[in-house]
Amino acid sequence: MRADLDFAPLYRSSVGFDRVFNLLNNAQRLHAVDSWPPYDIVKTGENDYCIEMAVAGFGEGDLDITQERNVLIVKGQKAETKDGEYLHRGIAGRGFERKFELADHVRVEDASLSNGLLQVSLKREVPEAMKPRKIAIGGATFQNEPLQLEADRQVA
Questions:
Q1: What pLDDT score was predicted for residue 85?
Q2: CB 4 within 8 A of CB 17
Q3: Which domains, and CATH codes, for the chain?
Q4: Predicted structure pTM score
Q5: CA nearest 5: which of 107, 150, 22, 96?
């Protein structure tokens, strides 16, 4: 049994959050997600994050990391090697594709692979135009004068 959330009341008092509401609606529709490979998402600073994935047995050449708009895609495909006959195969080596939804203005800084642990560093960079700014009340007046280039000004 699944209860759908109604976001209609939020639409009345918010502007520009359509994408967030769509993400929440889509998350409700997701069915059981494959839990392999295991991963952690760590907040390492105010605007810094790290995704750590356990990819034992995969080398750098077996992994592909791509950022498309607001989605980070990590793929792993191991080349088949025939070293001998396996009597027991407990180390998972199957291919995988894991997608992570990224917020606006989050970019991938770098990725590293060490001791079977893939680490992808992310950073949120809010543009200057979107940072809070103080608005003066009645401090400056708007002038309707046309702009002049320095060369066009007449010297008195």
A1: 81
A2: no
A3: 1-31 (no CATH), 36-80+90-127 (2.60.40.790)
A4: 0.62
A5: 22
